[in-house]
Structures
1.
Amino acid sequence: MSDNLLTIAGKTYNSRLLVGSGKYVDLAETKACTEASGAEIITVAIRRTNIGQNPGEPNLLDVVPPEKYTILPNTAGCYTAEDAIRTCRMARELLDGHKLVKLEVLGDEKTLFPDITATLKAAEVLVKDGFDVMVYTSDDPLIAKRLEEIGCAAVMPLAAPIGSGLGIRNPYNILTIVENANVPILVDAGVGTASDAAIAMELGCDGILMNTAIAAAKNPVLMASAMKHAVIAGREAFLAGRMPRKRFASASSPIDGTFF
Amino acid sequence: MKIILNGNALDLPDNSTLLKLIESQDLTGKRLAVEVNLEIIPKTEHAHYILKNDDKVEIVHAIGGGSANNSGSNFALNSGIISPSVNNHLDKS
């Protein structure tokens, strides 16, 4: 089904689930969960190399190879536009000219809510610099539109605070953002379990990016699989169009032909 | 001469190239990116780029990360965010 393909910055994907590669116990778990999720876009963080420590240790990109997956470097941990821009440029060098990045500029440590003014500023610079920017933002429809107008490749409102697992806290805002958009809208952050993912997709979101909901589950590999199915189910339900809600019952078996 | 590599002082022979530094840290052939004094030095220039005393060098790689986890992942305990502006920012607010 062609309308089941996700297109971001001119590239198409079968999976609408994007996953982060953080918070796993080890690289084996990262690999197993990534594979179970069916995700094709994987976020990574850019950090200092561990100088002088375990030089032979496996690298994340060995288990999530760029030849197989679309690597999405993110600016996680950046609290200024300057740091975020710098991180994206380092990622581009690291990944041989790779243009797709996830921009997030955080406002404070307690909420990890985005600093919107800094996010807008960084987005403008990065778009001008030739990056394809997928941007983490609040669930404010006006800001989402503004980020689209700046030229972001995808807009990714939070559904609840990062790592909170609180689910889709303001479905009406997410719906408004989706209805207004001409670029893909992906829920980024807040999903806690499979039903949350299905709800986001039923609202018409183009995809979901998650990390903690999988990594912090008791069985992360099984949750990765659950999320894969939830995203597919939610997308199909959105395309199918749900029945209207009715206050009273409506029998589904015919009344004619009863023998009692 | 002395340089600062990823926040730590390091003694290097004078006129060392960036490539020599990378080799000395057992990072040859790894997928990484290098900044000297906030300027990215492309891979193609590593062999020619000659370091100077007091240069600030950052060598970064990709690690596990998703939606903003400040701590990074368990297998990169000693990794740091490139610049510690978090605290500066919080101090101002």
2.
Amino acid sequence: MSLLAGEIALDGASRSFALTPDRTNTLKELFVRGGRRARHGVRALDDVDLHVAPGEAVGLIGRNGAGKTSTLRCLAGIVPLDEGRAECGGRTVSLLELGAGFGADFTGRENILLSGALHGFGRAEMEERVDRIIEFSELGDFIDAPVRAYSSGMQLRLGFSIVAHLDADVMLIDEVLAVGDESFQRKCMARIAERMAAGATLVLVSHDPTAIERICRRVVVLDGGRVAFDGQVADGLLFYHRLLGQGEERARSLRPDSHRAAVDVEELELLDEAGRPRAVFRTGEQLDVRLRLRARQAAERAVVAVEVRDQRGELCFRTDETVGALDGATDLTFSVPRLNLMGGDYDVAVGAHDQDAPASPELDRVARFAVTHSLDGEGIADLRGTWSPVGRREVVR
Amino acid sequence: MRYGFLFEQMVRRELRQKYKGSALGVLWYLVNPLVLMGAYALVFSVLLKVADLPDYPLFLLVGLIVWVFFSQALLAAAPSLVQNAALVRKVRFPRETIPASVATVQLATFLVMLAVVAPLALVIRGSADPALALLVPLVALLFSLVLGLSLLVAVLHAHYRDVEPVLAAMLLPWFFLTPIFLPIDSMPGIADHAWLGEVLRWGNPIAPFIEAIRDVLYAGAAPTGGTLLYVLVAGLGALGLGVGLFRRLERDLAVIL
């Protein structure tokens, strides 16, 4: 079964890697098995089925060790499979690592030829592209300096410019775009879109949901070497965040045990409108912060504080509220009817104290939640509005 | 050839890595055999007086340049895949080009030395012999042998990192067992142990190559039919073996490097 140009097929693809280098092989075994080692290690790819149509862009996400890079290396034909098949139709180019395939002592210009040659291009094909690649990379005079002297951003400029101009049917890109500056990243995205419009297929591995969202319509989440999710970007990212939340403690204490205050936050949980614990929310959903307070001695007028910060630590919202007399354990819910936060990771921290204490409440417990990204806005606050025509109006001065 | 351009690029890359920051550059490849030749000529033709051959330095030089090509190529090829691990792990391309480009760089320096030695031999002998035409196929077969063994040691070293040190340790005794400073028949002890002469001649794959090239360049005569046949079989056989084993063992290179 041969593939169309730009088509990708993984069928029952499996590949294991030994965790420790297996040095007990005898020479005889080596020759008999052709260098295939007995493996009892991790299955980096475990019966993976994945089909990509020409012109599609697929984002590959997953936790560390989920098999993302292994999938790309198998697709690129660098690492052979143990079972199944991994094939790309047409010409495939890969950008798996910054500076991969560069000669450090070669100049940028010489490396363009070398990289092209490694991807199977001939001299004439490369010489015709060199000028376009140099222009796209914006490296200027540095193009004639040895790559040894390049920063990682410059290596990306060169590496991506080359890969993007080889007119490949399939592009495999691993986690490298992140080092580029914003304007070059935009340029990369535009170029990728251009290539896709011409029928090229892209598989992009990234930890950065924004990059995935900007380029891909389809997301595949890998977990433990298996396809855990395959579908629309928004759902895929939601799934991924849920996956990340698993196995982590939902809330942790900010205070050392020895540093007890008059009122402690004993428990902190985030719930959805149905009262189920959740770590991932969509913009506009209801978010309930459920906490249990314990007063060491009866408090006359307890004050509770809730604070939400984004992943850089910027304060998004804070409120202090007097909740009145407290004695023993008390359950409280702080309900946000409409979560007006855009996609990203956030921390919600709570604290409580008796009004008589001098300062405003110290924060006691923190829980992390994620908001899934949406396609029609960026930033922190959800201020999504509607555009409408205003009708003809004459501006008279 | 589809990968001709790749091969050219890889050879350039290899050369650039070799000569970077070196004042003498390619001349280093000529210095090594010249220094060796001077020392051996002094020891064997002046001090020890075992060699009673006409134009002894020329005799030595021809053997030495072949040996230096052979040994340097293998020593450089063995670690070449490991040294280029980053490339093998991240890009798909025919991996044979790595040891092949290393061997080719050594071939280039060998050809430079040959271009010096061959006219020298003609001047010293004062005549050209039709057997000289055999030099071209002999060098081609020598390269075939070196290329085959380079592929072999490179891929074996990738699997077993002992290969390079073992090779380095073998090359010195191997050098002394190779008929470089004396023809096998002129070795003083050979008269009592004729069988040893046969072992030295046929048991050492590089020995017939040295004898054949020396016949052509130094003696100005065609090698014996047996030597030519040996050179043909050994050259093509080594290449076949090298390519075959490389193909068989390269499968998991990206994982083990």
3.
Amino acid sequence: MPKLPAPPLPAPLKTPPPRPGTGNGTATPADHAHKGAVAVVDWVDERTSLSGAARWMMFRKVPKGTNWFYTLGSATMFAFLSQAVTGVFLAMYYRPDASGGAYESIRYVTNDVFLGQFVRGMHKWGSSVMVVLVFLHMGRTFFFGAYKYPRELNWVIGVVLLILTMAMSFTGYLLPFDQRAYWATQVGVNINGTGPLLGPYLSAFLLGGSEFNATTLSRFYAIHMLLLPGLIAALIGAHLYLVAKLGTTAPPWQKVHRRDELLETEV
Amino acid sequence: MADKRTRHTSKYTLDRGIPGAFEGETITRRRFMTGTAHGTGALAAMSFALPALAFAVGPVFKTNTEHWEVVGKLDQFPDNNYVPVILTLNPGIGEAGKTTVYVRKFNPEIDTDPYDKNMPYIAISSRCAHVGCPVRWVDASERFICPCHGGVYDLLGRRVGGPPVRPLDRFYTRVNGEDVEVGMRFSVNSQLRHFSPRLPGEPLDGIGQYLYPSVPGAKI
């Protein structure tokens, strides 16, 4: 089996191999810890070959001209991760009870739980941040022409992720169950219903019946915290796989560097 | 054995020279095994996926049961002005299950529509026919006015301004002894013809009634 190439680290970061005859008798605890860690990583890698995948993913060649705009995708992903983590902890306190328990549990988180206001604030404002970042990322992709062949499928996945993010925002908006949440959801569901033929059925599916009822809130909660996050995580995986597989594009202003001296010597 | 071309045209595995083939056998055992395994997998997946899907979609097809709610005494409602009453559409979820309904006595002078003849009282839903905000009866202007997007309706609930696509919904009414009772919701088009209830934003005039079918759960 061929040896995988070492990652292209800059020279100062590479650890020089130990010189023969030195260091053997004077191993510090740090050296032992280092050796132990290497042994553990090797043990796992021997059985999973994960280091190859990690290297394939992390040490990619990127085109000249790659700049800060290329970080918007990662920024969106970290916004999602932040939503996922804060959401999991909010779920420990939230009660999807339409007869007053939902509002009371949110009030409890906001006013009484240690750091509750902060975690809920992260989730609430983070959702807006995520939507903004999704659009900036989409704009970057569009204006840099990064949606063109062979990356069309990644654009399509990205559009689905955009729609899922919107669905997350919509279903999450009901959960505080205050006046704003209730009426915004009424309006949102009814806008769904204005789609011809399927619209009324989509609205009835969302409401869990022909009108807002006892199961609507728990329906929205389940969609918000189980169905959509799973879909989004899976599609982010596919999105990232295609990014690593196809590579990133150079910005449109990047000129092809012609090495004229080579052309002349060819002749 | 025949050449490749004839070997592939025969449907019997025996003719194709497959070792261990039985006479009359038309499918290789490898294909049969693969198909069986995939079929079993699909069956296993569907055995939980289909019930789960039906479970999630089921409420769409659940029909509402008829219910009547007493809203007041007979002489409580004038025939030229509305009295707001609170109706509990969905019990058990507190304020979220309640809605305001505007009720007045049937008035032969203004309720000339033949469909309204059997209604002893006229009950108008406060749910705006645009996207469902709560409208308010403004006595001075004799209009229902929606605070969200400026929908305006007249005394009969017909749209006179703003974005709504049809008149305000109504409720069936009946007299039970001394009490006025309000029942199920129904929607009306601009001629005040009765339809099964639709969600707001769904027009009922012309082709609208076919483009926006009432879901089974809403049928009355």
4.
Amino acid sequence: MNSIKTYTTAGIILKYIPYKEADLIVTLLTENTGKVKAVAQGARRIKSKFIGHLEPLTIINGLLIKGKTLDTISQVDIKQSYPEFYMDLNRLSRGLYICELVDQFAPENEPNKPLFRLTMRILSILTNSTEIDYELALREFEFQILKISGLMPELYNCVSCNTSIIPNDHNYSAVGGGVICTDCSSNIQTSPMSLSAIKLIRFFDNKSILEDSQISISPETIQEVKSLLINSIIHWLERELKSNNFINHLKSLNNNKTDLETDRMTMKG
Amino acid sequence: MNYNNFPIISDTLTQLIDELHKLPGIGPKTAQRLAYFIVRQTKKDNDDLANAIFSVSNNIVYCEKCQNISDSDPCRICINPRRDHSLICVVEDPMDVMAIEKSNCFKGLYHVLHGSISPLNGIGPDQLKIKELFDRLKSDDIKELIIATNPTLQGEATALYISNNNSNRDIVMTHLARGLPVGGSLEYSDDITLSRAFQGRQQLDR
């Protein structure tokens, strides 16, 4: 006799794709079994019991049936939803960026509780903080996801000559895997890395902003750290991050709007 | 799947199976079944099917105003004088236009975006007909823009993007009510739908 193997788990919905007439294939990061792909039958019908429960960035409690290739979602209850994402395109774009990073870095069916806890924490910060605070937290998220995946950049010794990094401006190589001292930088393709950027990433390694630390960092340093970490992420994934392109698009629109407002104010003055 | 490795099947039939297999949701076995069904059909039925496919690829155009698929440009809805030309309903797909038209509840014009913003799939505003919508809002005399994108995260992202970037501030922007579907069950409603249903509650007639 065949026995149906079911399991209950909390999960974060990362994405879904349409499947067959009215089904969805949902990708979720579960607390106990890592990233899982599961079919939600009839989920696209307007009167489905799954409607509204399987949108990305929703935290669910689900009953799933184990399958050979894909699991099947049997029951879903929303543990936490974030209406903030439905009202603010900037937050939403960052939320989807988190989903893409988790989807890309988490291997299927491998339990990864640290990643689950990290993702839960960053979603909470993203929906409850100001832009400068969540941008800083996102940089730590990028660093931590590399660290959890065993791809942490080297911050303390030069990746080329292995000498200890002295407190100064240096260079960074995504291909080399970390900080490069000024003597070695001519041999490898690098990006400049300021002392404050090194300090900030080291801070991510030792303490955690995600655990209620209150520090003040300049937007320029946050932007610098972002470009360095993104280089590493793209290097390891061997692909561009689609959601990051959308974030850049929104940023350029916001900058244009700010310029227009400034021009208007100047003309009035 | 390439069936050229199976010489027992005729080349013509193999080509038909290959073409049918390209359709969404059609696997190799279904493609074979459909091909054999077509073989058994009368010549007239097959000619009608072939003509319908032929005329779709030759006669269907996109309406320059609303971007909907149509037999003519501008489409029948856009040139109809009995429709309210000051109202535009923005939808994701041509199928949405058909659904709203079937309900017979809207007499304005449409704008079809041909998708929704989906950063995870690399679909941004530039891949949709959003620029055409903004151009239309600048040039035409529009009083209200009704955003009828799907009530999904992608649909909401599209609605937010349009509302944030529409430079014509004289146009009233609305979106379809969110709430409980007829025949649905409160027990299975999600938090966001339920809270919006409460926000949009209506007084009962006495």
